[in-house]
Amino acid sequence: MKTLKWVGIGIGGIVAIAHIGVLGHLLRVSEKYSEKIQYPVINLPTGDYSSYRIKSDQEGYEIEYRANDPKVMTSEKSLNLDKTKKGLFGGGNEIRKEYRRDEYTMDGTRNIGGEIDGEGKSAREIECIVADAGSRSQGAMAGTSIASGIGVPAVVGIPYVGWLAAGWISLLGGRIGEDVGSMVGSVFNDC
Question: What is the pTM of this model?
Answer without folding.
Answer: 0.36
